[in-house]
Every structure is written in C-alpha cells, then in structure tokens.
Amino acid sequence: MALITISGYPSSGKSQRAAQIKRHFEARLADPFYTGPSLSVVVLDDDTLNIDRSSYNDSRSEKPARGTLFTAVQRNLAQNKIVIVDSLNYIKGFRYQMYCAAREIKVRVCTVYVLATPDLCKQWNSERTDGKAYAPETLANLLQRYEEPSSMVRWDSPLFTVSWSDEDVPADDIWRAITEGVVKPPNTGT
Ligand code: ADP
C-alpha cells in the first residue's frame, strides 16, 4: 500500500523516528472510528535482516547487505501493508531502485529525512549501549558519502524532514501523503 523510506546519517535517530511513525499509524488503524482498509505496518531494518553494522565498513560487504534489504522490500511490498525501510538509504540510486519497485506494484511512496548534525551523530554513536554503534572510521566515511534526499526528484518525493530537535514526526502529514497522495505545501512563514 505504501513504502516509507527513512534516510539519514548513521546514528542520527532513524530507528527512533521509524518507531514513532509505526506507533502513530498503529494507533490510527486501531481507532474504532477508522473506516479505511485493514493495513499492517512493517519495519524493515538492518537488525531484523541480520545486517551487521560492520557491513558498512567497505563497499564489498555493503553491496550484499543492500541486496538483502532490497529483496526484503520487494517481498514485503503489498497492497495491505505500509512498509517502513529503516536503514541508511544514503545512495540516491538505491532509493531510486526502491521507488521503482514500489511504483511497479502501484504503492505510494514517501521519504523521511532524519536530520542531525555530524557532531551529534558522532556523539550519539559513541554513547550507544545497544551494541549497534558504527566503527568511528565507518561513521566518518558514511557521513562523507551520504547523498542527501531532495524533494526535487520524484523518487525522494514527497520528502518530510525531521530534525533532531523535533519532539515528534509529522505523522498526520505522512499518513495523508501515503493514503490520499495529499502533501501539505511547505510552510513559507508568510
Ligand atoms: P539510527 O537508527 O540512525 O542509527 P537510533 O534511532 O538507533 O539511530 O539512535 C542512535 C542513538 O542516538 C540512540 O542511542 C538514541 O538514543 C540517540 N538519539 C537518537 N535521536 C536522538 C535525539 N533526537 N536526541 C538525543 N538522542 C538521540
């Protein structure tokens, strides 16, 4: 039914944002006044797919990791599912590939860009106690190679940017984008 691609620097808070979106959507779907189709919300991430953070240490090990993720995306995309892809998704071409897979079966797409400064990511990464920290050189390398999403290209669009200081995700806007194709114009402050 929809593909939500999360993208952001390593340790920028992507998993937290994916979990927030999932919580909002599941609450909405469980609401007794909800009258839409029955949908499930699935998060695909490196952990559930057994992709170790060290896979990102070099491009040779990263390629099969991306292959695993892409296969899982293809398998999960369905009319009765909202698939949230919680991974770095930092390569433009890879996001384009997922977009094409989604459009092929006519599910709506959107991208959520989780924004945190490189210094914060380094700090949060070094403070991680969940065993999911990236090696410092890998983190530095990924920060350098990161290809920022852009609302100007169709495969990243509609694009929602969530900053590290935001309490919550714009769940209602994301919901409207994937269910109705409605996107609120950016707030220009006028
Ligand atoms: P990612 O999925 O991008 O690797 P996570 O969501 O797993 O990032 O978060 C990485 C670490 O950073 C976690 O230890 C988390 O507690 C911390 N973190 C994430 N977002 C924030 C935030 N907005 N403020 C403070 N700490 C954060």
Quick summary of this structure?
With 190 residues, this protein is α/β, with parallel strands linked by helices. It is 40% helix and 17% strand. The chain contains six helices and five strands, in the order βαβαβαβααβα.
3D architecture notes:
With 190 residues, the protein is of the alpha/beta class. The protein has one domain (2-179): Rossmann fold. It has 6 helices and 5 strands, in the order E-H-E-H-E-H-E-H-H-E-H. Strands 2-3-1-4-5 form a 5-stranded parallel sheet, with helices on both faces. Strand 2, helix 2 (59-76) and strand 3 (81-86) form a beta-alpha-beta unit. Helix 4 packs antiparallel against helix 5. It is globular and about 50 Å long. The N and C termini lie far apart (35 Å). The model has no long low-confidence stretch (mean pLDDT 95). The structure holds adenosine-5'-diphosphate. Residues 8, 10-16, 124, 128, 164 line the site of adenosine-5'-diphosphate.
Notable traits:
single chain; 190 residues; alpha/beta; Rossmann fold; five-stranded parallel β-sheet; 40% helix; globular; binds adenosine-5'-diphosphate
Largest sheet: 5 strands, parallel
Q: Given the helix and strand composition, which structural class is it?
A: alpha/beta
Tell me the CATH architecture: 3-Layer(aba) Sandwich
Q: What's the name of the CATH homologous superfamily? A: P-loop containing nucleotide triphosphate hydrolases
Which runs of at least 5 residues are low in confidence (pLDDT < 50)? none
The total count of strands amounts to 5
| Spatial shape | globular
